[in-house]
Design brief:
It contains four helices and 19 strands. By secondary structure, the protein is mainly beta. It has two domains: 26-168, Chitinase A, domain 3 (Roll); 176-315, Chitinase A, domain 3 (Roll). Strands 11, 14, 15, 16, 17, 18 and 19 form a seven-stranded antiparallel sheet that branches. Strands 5, 6, 7, 8, 9 and 10 form a six-stranded antiparallel sheet that branches. A two-stranded antiparallel ribbon has the order 1-2. The longest helix has 8 residues, at 146-153. The two termini are 13 Å apart.
Length: 316
């Protein structure tokens, strides 16, 4: 299972590594033409090496106090289409004055850097801009002005980043809708971006664990001990109110061994790409003591989109 790692001291990142497929070039619903965003900075560097491996870089320095990005290689995989969508990236940083190496992510199959555009919005806006609409398999040259480099990397000079988008992950379930006779169970409606709304009926809650597949994916099967990349929303049966959701902040990695039993049991045996409705009785949730805003004795309802399995990522 992969470990988390910090890319650089000022750009803290989380762990994961999984796969993706093609998507239309748009970002947050607006068309995005990568060619139109070209700034001509690719001419400052000669780069070789495979995507996802530490590149060989020759910089034509000094570059001046400029900012922008260009694609050196354009990937053909899934596109980043929203600010919270997760991607696995690797990058190296160089001095814009001397060309000297400053730092890099790990470029290690046991360590990965899972980020989103939103993660970089404050600490590395030039990287955030380069990731908008970027496709899996893309390599970009990103130039930071001196002010931007000081904020992102703590240096007092312009910086050049070679950025690889190794993998882009889906932001929602991407399988086949299933018919369910859900009598007495919550129903689910979905916004255009896939965000679920959960409608809990005015009936008694089930006393046993329920795991109902709403969308069936065709990916790998979830096993005990896996770590998953998921989108989820949770409500309590009694008050029908959302107590937690990943949809505002982006997909989350969960280790099934560290979750309440009902949540984990409801996902084991499901497949990547699926959306699952899970109803968790109190004894498989937070029991009679409850936790935080969840009262004791609560039956919990979750809708979970399974986006990827972290433990199988090395092969990808």
């Amino acid at each position: 299972m992969r470990k988390s790692s910090a890319a650089l001291a000022t750009l803290s990142l989380a762990a994961a590594a999984l796969t993706g497929c093609a998507a239309a070039p748009a970002f947050d619903g607006a068309s995005c033409d990568r060619d139109a965003l070209s700034t001509g900075v690719d001419s400052i560097a000669t780069i070789s090496g495979e995507i996802g491996t530490a590149p060989d870089v020759e910089l034509h320095t000094p570059i001046g106090d400029v900012s922008g990005f260009d694609d050196v290689i354009v990937g053909e995989g899934r596109a980043i289409t929203s600010a919270t969508q997760k991607a696995l990236v690797e990058f190296s940083v160089y001095s814009g004055e001397t060309g000297d190496f400053i730092g890099a992510t790990a470029y290690d199959e046991q360590v990965s850097q899972m980020v989103s555009v939103a993660d970089y919005a404050q600490s590395g806006p030039a990287l955030a801009a380069a990731l908008e609409c970027a496709t899996e398999g893309t390599r970009s040259v990103v130039v930071f002005s001196a002010d931007e480099a000081a904020m992102a990397f703590g240096v007092d000079e312009p910086a050049v980043v070679v950025l690889d988008v190794v993998s882009v992950f889906p932001s929602r379930a991407e399988g086949t809708a299933q018919f369910n006779d859900g009598r007495g169970l919550p129903s689910v409606v979905r916004a255009p971006d896939g965000r679920p709304g959960i409608i809990v009926p005015d009936t008694e809650a089930p006393t046993e664990l329920v795991a109902q597949t709403l969308i069936a994916g065709d990916g790998e099967t979830v096993a005990e001990g896996d770590s998953l990349l998921v989108q989820y929303t949770g409500v309590t049966w009694a008050d029908k109110k959302v107590f937690d959701s990943s949809w505002e902040r982006g997909a989350t990695i969960f280790d099934l061994q560290q979750l309440i039993p009902g949540f984990s049991q409801g996902l084991i045996g499901q497949t990547v790409g699926s959306q699952v409705l899970i109803v968790v009785p109190p004894e498989l949730g937070y029991g009679e003591q409850g936790t935080g805003s969840i009262p004791g004795g609560s039956t919990l309802v979750f809708v979970v989109d399974i986006l990827a399995i972290e433990s199988s990522a090395a092969a990808g």
